[in-house]
Amino acid sequence: MNIILFDETDYYQNKDTIRLSGYRFDHISEILKSKKNDLLQVGLINGKLGTGKVIEITGQYTDISVTLDKDPPLPASLTLLLALPRPKILKRTLKHITVLGVKKIFLINSFRVDKSYWQTPVLDKEKIKDIFLNSLEQSCDTVLPELFMKPLFKPFVEDELPDIIKNTIPVIAHPKAANTLVDISGKHFTLAVGPEGGFIPYEIKKLKECGFEEYNFGERILPVETAVPGIISILTRSIHSCVDVP
Questions:
Q1: What sign results for the dihedral spanned by CA atoms 124, 44, 5, 134?
Q2: pTM for this one?
Q3: Distance in angstroms (rounded) separating the CA atoms of residues 33 and 29
Q4: Is 115 helix (H, G, I), strand (E, B) or coil?
């Protein structure tokens, strides 16, 4: 945990002081071993970053005076469409995605996605939020990603996806595509990543009809949890290298 996150319910008495208990108190007292007047890096969830000063610490809670004066890191200019992976892989992949600053994630269906995956407890809203918060604490960010679940492939692609990809470069990650990711640049991407085994031809066809193009990311066929952060890093680098032309 590289930052202490809190929300509006943690304010105590006024908007300058928060009272923390539970795992955040445990981290402050047992891991950081903070004492009165020590400074901590803090952030308001979906708000600003700043500094906290320990003003009281007991056996059950700590009171911290906070000053919020910094904006969170800029988000990644990328929207992710991810075919729902196995639950254990999903947890790890969501952590990687959040740490890299992706703020809009669509979990979509595919022929090769097992129907049972949509029933996993990992998709519980509170469990998803915990994954996001743990990742934000790692990356010193405050802004929670938005996650949308789309269990019907065709209606999503035909009815919703055209609006989602407006003003973006839509990309399908495919290891056997002729074009390579390093050849493209832009300001915002919509990235579609298939399940293990990839999208089936029908799904590729529907995505292409919507405006997507296939790009490879190297000769190796990678597992989803490795491929997704790697591709995001490549696209993020291409965004940073894109220069406006008057």
A1: positive
A2: 0.91
A3: 5
A4: helix
Does CATH place domain 78-240 in 2.60.370.10? no
Q: Does domain 4-70 have CATH number 2.40.240.20?
A: yes
Give the distance, in angstroms, between the CA of residue 224 and the centroid of all CA atoms in the same chain.
15
Closest to 84 measured CA to CA, from 148, 143, 132, 135: 148
* Spatial CA neighbour of 236 closest among 44, 118, 84, 103: 103
By DSSP bridging, strand 39-44 and strand 4-6 are parallel
3-state secondary structure 120-144: CHHHCHHHHHHHHHHHHHHHCCCCC
Tokens of 225: 């949890």
For residue range 138-190, list pLDDT tens digits in order: 999 999 999 999 999 999 999 999 999 999 999 998 877 777 776 676 789 99
CATH 2.40.240.20 intervals, the chain: 4-70
Give 58-82 as a DSSP string.
-SS-EEEEEEEEEPPPPPPSEEEEE
Q: Where in the chain is the domain with CATH 3.40.1280.10?
A: 78-240
How far apart (Å, rounded) are the C-alpha atoms in residues 114 and 85? 9
